[in-house]
Amino acid sequence: MTAAGPLVQVQQLMLRGRRAEALASLKGIVEAAGASPDLLARAASLFGQMNAHPAAADCQRRLVRLLPGHPDVLRGLAAAETACGRLGEAERLLDAAIAADPAECDSWYNRAVLRRQTAARNHIAALRARLAHPSGRGIVPLAYALAKELEDLGEHGESFVWLKQGADARRAMLSYRVEGDVQAMADIAAVFSVEKLANTPAADNPERPIFIVGLPRTGTTLLERMLGMHSQVTALGELTELPLAVTRAAAGGDKGETIRRAGEADFAALGRDYLRAVATYEPARPVTTDKLPNNFLYIGLLYRGLPRARVIHLRRHPMDSAYAIYKTLFRMGYPYAYDLNDLARYYAAYARLMRHWRAAAPGYVVDLDYEALVQRPEATARDLYARLELDWQPACLEFHRHDAPVATASAAQVREPVHTGSVGLWRHHQAELEPFAAGLRAEGIDPETGEISQGRSDRA
Fold first, then answer.
1. Does residue 117 contact residue 152 with C-beta atoms inside 8 Å?
2. What is the pLDDT, as a whole number, of residue 408?
3. How far apart are CA 390 and CA 388, in angstroms?
């Protein structure tokens, strides 16, 4: 029998929230199947999806031994090494992957974001040469890579030219319509109304996990790394357990039908389902963190299903937030990131939903500003720890020494000490970002503060 069948079974276990069984099964398959490059590649991907990054790296190293010098294999191991914090080794592997196949363009972007480029050490000339004759999808990672390296060297004007070229090309590849997400967030607010949540009894679930939510690139990984340094906290990263639990409880029909069913779900059972899934990570410390940014969509469910959970909402200056999202080439998800008009529409819908949660779940969400976190890290962290009922431990400020794997777009940045270098970066591109600012103003939102105009409907 080939490994295809057992791997499908592993995926089914993952979807049912049975992570421990899925991991054990996958490890057994890898051990029994021997040296199969196809199986090792697929197993590495599945280990990564389950946040088992050391196991993914082991599979990738075996692949490199089987297929030495293969650019795809080198790139795969580089991704695993990046997640595990071995950035120097990741850069060496990406150098080798590019040397083996310069036309494999993803490696150029992955290498560019590993560190801050300098005048003495960068790849700008080579990137310009590659972009002189771009082909197909390759223009996207190459343009993003050049934009990033130019920004590192302070060439902000040319950087944005390449950034827009890459974003436009990426957007053209997607069939995404932002109206679907805007409508979904309006539907969520309607289903989980103030009245609905006020009249729904809270579940008797005493556990107190921490959820870190918000838009991507707003400091969620930074905050989790800080919290993960506490002796009582296990930082679990971006988990899919909550959306999977919602899917198991409510999936059916289109997105609107799923939202309606979620409003009728057994919130207490959903909370228990989530906690069972998280327990399979075998957290070494009693308090867990889950930093999947999009969990802001499920705050109504959490409010009643896990009433003692702590939800921290990371906020950032709207313009800095937009620029940080727009300049990131995401591995998956966030399709609104590649067009400033889409981004404005999505941001407005998100802002209205968060305003709704503050009214419908009073006192449940702690708003935390990214700027305060990086400009006054100790004072801000002390205040947050007190609100989370955690004793203050100065080690949280040494988060860059945390050796836990990170597989998000911030994997390289969080290995650095706290700094304010990303605050106000948008001002270099005020004119170019005007479509986003104008889009927010059209939605009744101040692009400087994120405040929604008085009287503006949540369903705007």
1. yes
2. 53
3. 5
pTM, entire model: 0.91
Residue with tokens 């309606």: 260
Query: What's the total number of domains in the chain?
Result: 3
Residues 109-151: pLDDT tens digits?
999 999 999 999 999 999 999 999 877 789 999 999 999 999 9
Asked if residue 293 and residue 160 are part of one domain, the reply reads no
Residue 156 and residue 111 share a domain: yes
Backbone φ, ψ for residue 366 (5° rounding): -100, 115
Tokens of 205: 């679930």
- pLDDT, tens digit, 9 for 90 and up, residues 335-379: 999 999 999 999 999 999 999 999 999 999 999 999 999 999 999
CATH value at residue 228:
3.40.50.300
Instruction: Answer yes or no: is 451 within a domain.
Output: no
Do 384 and 260 lie in one domain? The reply is yes
Q: Is 146 exposed, middle or buried (0-12, 13-18, 19+ CB in 10 A)?
A: buried
Residues 6+ apart with CB under 8 A from 11: 22, 46
Polymer length in residues for the chain: 460
Considering the domain architecture, whether residues 32 and 118 belong to the same structural domain is answered as no
CA–CA distance, 42 with 246 (Å, rounded to integer)? 26
Indicate whether 398 and 311 sit together in one domain.
yes
* 106-110 average pLDDT score: 96
Record the tokens describing residue 215, joined without a space.
């838009």
Q: 164-179, pLDDT tens digit by residue? A: 999 999 999 999 999 9
Q: How confident is the model at residue 307 (pLDDT cuts 50, 70, 90)?
A: very high
- Full domain range(s) for residue 52: 1-101
Q: Other C-beta atoms within 10 Å of 118: how many? A: 10
**Cα separation, 114 vs 112, whole angstroms:** 6
Q: 290: closest CA among 309, 270, 263, 305? A: 309
